[in-house]
Amino acid sequence: MQKNKNKKSSKKTWMQYAIFALVGLSLYATGWHTEVIGFVQRGVLATGLMNPDVEEIAEKREQTNTQDKSQASNLQKVDYNLDFIDAAGSRRSLKEFKGKVIFLNFWATWCPPCVAEMPSINSLHEEMGDEVAFVLLSFDKDFEKAKAFDKRKGYNLPIFAPAGKLPSMFQSSALPTTYVIDAEGNLALTHTGMADYSDPKFKKFLESLK
């Protein structure tokens, strides 16, 4: 009797594993695994633990600004020689946005953390798109996938594809990576990994960079 129960239990366990495996394979086959993982990671973003410490960064910048002019070298100047292709196929450049605060994000549709943070970037863009220049640089091999993703999600974000070699200061080995450039052309923030950019503290930080 006990043997029969054990056999039934074992069979049930293997059936469950088989179902999980089938679901997993289906998600990978359809490409939805990225969306599912990204959705789960949004729960992590909600904790705020992944966000850059913009208050500390702002404090350090303020200390630098109040010091002698000779300390200005502490702020890293941005290399604007970054070219990209927009969704319409036109060649563009980071130089176009000189004098504005720039939110530069490296991402890809196959990157779950990128997908996880995208709603917060969209929210930030909707609120501050007129004040801040947004450049979302897709590293998908096929740029059409990035455009289709943007359309499917209803974001209407300013997405681009790299056009040529990236300046050394922007050669990140991780996705997502976000750079924030102030209106004077200084690199104000580099954040590797996902974050919740709809956080009020981050919005206040961007406003301080004008």
List keywords for this structure.
210 residues; alpha/beta; 7-stranded mixed β-sheet; 6 helices; globular
Summary, kept brief:
The chain has 210 residues and is of the alpha/beta class.
Write the layout of secondary structure elements.
Elements: H1 2-30, H2 33-45, H3 54-66, E1 83-86, E2 91-93, E3 101-107, H4 112-128, E4 132-138, H5 143-153, E5 159-162, E6 177-181, E7 187-192, H6 200-207
Parallel strand pairs: 3-4, 4-5
Antiparallel strand pairs: 1-2, 1-5, 3-6, 6-7
Q: Mind explaining what this structure looks like?
A:
It is a single chain. The chain is α/β, with parallel strands linked by helices and 210 residues long. The protein has six helices and seven strands. It has helices spanning 2-30, 33-45, 54-66, 112-128, 143-153, 200-207, and strands at 83-86, 91-93, 101-107, 132-138, 159-162, 177-181, 187-192. It is globular, with a radius of gyration of 22 Å.
* Total of helices: 6
- Given the helix and strand composition, which structural class is it? alpha/beta
The helix content is 40-55%
Sequence of strands across the biggest β-sheet: 2-1-5-4-3-6-7
Report the count of strand segments: 7
Q: Provide the succession of SSEs.
A: HHHEEEHEHEEEH
